[in-house]
Write a structure and sequence with these properties.
It is a single chain. By secondary structure, this protein is α+β, with helices and mostly antiparallel strands. The chain is about 20% helix and about 45% strand. The chain is built from two helices and eight strands, in the order E-H-E-E-E-E-H-E-E-E. It has an eight-stranded mixed sheet with strand order 2-3-4-1-5-8-7-6, covered by helices on one side. A hairpin with a 3-residue loop joins strand 6 and strand 7. The longest helix is centred in the N-terminal third of the chain and has 12 residues. The chain is globular, with a radius of gyration of 15 Å. The two termini are about 15 Å apart. The model has no long low-confidence stretch (mean pLDDT about 90).
C-alpha cells in the first residue's frame, strides 16, 4: 500500500499517567528516550504500527493522538498538501538520524503528520 500509517504519537500533559494507563491497558513495552526537548516514550507493540508518547509541545492544546503517514519525499508531499488546500502547521523538521517530519492541516481542519524515514526506520 502506498503511503501507509507508520506511527502514532500521544501528545499529553501528563506523561507518567498516560504511560501507566496505556501500559496497563494494552501491555505495551515502553522505552523512555531522552531528547533535547524532553522525554519521548517509544511504544513497542511487536506486530503492527508502533508509536510514542510525549509532553504536548503546544501548551494549552488538549491531549490528542497524532497519526503519521509515510512518504517518499516529504518536501514534495507537504507542497502538494498546500496545493490541495491544506496548511503546513509544523515545518519539516529532522528528527535525529531517524528521518524528517512535518504536520499539515487538511481543508477540514484535521491535523496529520508526514514522515520520511531513513532506510530501515518506519
Amino acid at each position: 500500500m502506498a503511503n501507509p500509517f507508520v506511527h502514532v504519537v500521544l501528545h499529553t500533559g501528563d506523561l507518567a499517567k498516560a504511560k501507566a494507563f496505556y501500559g496497563g491497558l494494552f501491555g505495551w513495552s515502553l522505552q523512555d528516550l531522552p531528547t533535547p526537548k524532553g522525554t519521548f516514550t517509544l511504544i513497542k507493540v511487536g506486530e503492527g504500527t508502533g508509536g510514542g508518547m510525549m509532553i504536548n509541545p503546544e501548551p494549552g492544546a488538549p491531549p490528542h493522538w497524532l497519526a503519521y503517514v509515510g512518504v517518499d519525499d516529504i518536501e514534495a508531499s507537504s507542497a502538494r498538501a498546500v496545493e490541495l488546500g491544506g496548511t503546513l502547521v509544523h515545518p519539516i523538521t529532522k528528527i535525529g538520524f531517524l528521518g524528517s517530519m512535518c504536520v499539515i492541516k487538511d481543508p477540514t481542519g484535521a491535523h496529520l503528520a508526514l514522515w520520511q524515514g531513513k532506510a530501515g526506520f518506519w
